[in-house]
Design brief:
Bound molecules: adenosine-5'-triphosphate, magnesium ion
Radius of gyration of chain A: 15 Å
Strand order of the largest sheet of chain B: 1-5-4-3-2
Oligomer: heterodimer
Radius of gyration of chain B: 12 Å
Number of helices of chain A: 5
Number of domains of chain B: 1
Strand content of chain A: 25-35%
Number of helices of chain B: 5
Helix content of chain B: 25-40%
Structural class of chain A: alpha+beta
CATH topology of chain A: Heat Shock Protein 90
Number of strands of chain A: 5
Shape of chain B: globular
Strand order of the largest sheet of chain A: 1-2-3-5-4
Structural class of chain B: alpha/beta
Largest interface: A-B, 25 and 22 residues
CATH superfamily of chain B: HprK N-terminal domain-like
CATH architecture of chain A: 2-Layer Sandwich
Number of strands of chain B: 5
Order of helices and strands of chain B: HEEHEHEHEH
CATH superfamily of chain A: Histidine kinase-like ATPase, C-terminal domain
Largest sheet of chain A: 5 strands, antiparallel
CATH architecture of chain B: 3-Layer(aba) Sandwich
Shape of chain A: globular
Chain lengths: 147, 114
């Protein structure tokens, strides 16, 4: 089960399509999120945290998934980042959350990905992290940042 | 210290962000694993990396790194230069290896007080 922002409180929703394997576009959604949050006058520290988490979630979709959708919800109380992809899913979430664990390909590693720090970074930056996944179905990540 | 003072002390050339050389930086970070840089990269600092693909600009923008130095005269992709200009990141290419670059920066006081 996932919590959803109370509809009445929703100030703004943005969605970003994330293409699998496209390293050139990778980071674009996170950059757009950062610009948007800045324009909205959100506290700089929170902007930085949300941007880092968005980048790591986006790159995970680019590198490890078949692609998906990232969604940003802004309410007066919190910012919620939701990333849902079409698979292949994560076999062992606890293992995936460990610093240093990575299944990144040689190509991704050559580009500097695959330190196994992305999910730990998201955890560190967010106030609440929910990650669920089913092999063959996909992964759903939800990170909350309290305002 | 301003970036334009710093570059007087290291060999190299400014590839992008010429107009932002008066930015102040205090510290620097070396690293080629992007999510380590996401975790520890210095806000308003210098980042030394051998990575040259466009994603380094995304990382620098998100972490708010002011300046990237690419060591060993590694060729920098045109896309990356374009993106650096767009995102107002100073991009410098230097013939020195990362270790020497870091040493020179440290010598002139970058990253000494943390
Ligand atoms: N959306 C996803 N779909 C499938 N697997 C995933 C997804 N996100 C993460 N994983 C798995 O979890 C592992 C750890 O992810 P994490 O982001 O911490 O590290 P990484 O992406 O491998 O490296 P880094 O983020 O440091 O570049 C990945 O290697 C991958 O096996
Ligand atoms: Mg990752």
């Amino acid at each position: 089960m996932t919590e959803s922002a109370n509809n009445e409180d929703l100030v703004m929703v943005q969605t970003y399509e994330i293409e699998a394997g496209n390293f050139t576009l990778a980071g674009e959604a996170a950059s757009n999120i950062k610009k948007l949050l800045r324009q909205l006058g959100i506290d700089a520290k929170i902007v930085r945290k949300v941007s880092i988490a968005a980048y790591e979630a986006e790159l995970n979709m680019v590198i490890h998934s078949l692609g998906g959708i990232m969604r940003l919800e802004i309410t007066p109380k919190e910012i919620v980042l939701k990333a849902r992809d079409d698979g292949p899913g994560i076999e062992d979430i606890e293992l995936a959350m460990q610093e240093g664990y990575s299944t990144a390909t040689e190509l991704a590693r050559e580009l500097g990905f695959g330190a196994g720090m992305g999910l730990p970074n998201i955890k560190r930056c967010s106030d609440k992290l929910h990650l669920q996944s089913k092999l063959g179905q996909g992964t759903y990540l939800e990170a909350r940042f309290f305002l | 210290m301003k970036i334009n003072e710093i570059i007087k002390n290291i060999p190299g050339k400014v590839i992008a962000g010429e107009e932002f050389l008066d930015k102040e930086v205090k510290t620097a970070y070396c690293g080629d694993l992007l999510s380590r840089v996401m975790a520890h990269g210095p806000q308003d600092g210098i980042w030394i990396t051998v990575q040259t693909h466009t994603n380094i600009i995304a990382v620098a923008t998100l972490v708010e790194i002011a300046c990237i130095i690419v060591p060993e005269d590694i060729p920098i992709e045109a896309n990356t230069i374009e993106k650096a200009i767009e995102e107002k990141i100073v991009l410098i290419s230097s013939p020195l290896p990362a270790f020497q670059l870091a040493g020179k920066l440290y010598e002139i006081g970058i990253g000494k007080e943390q």
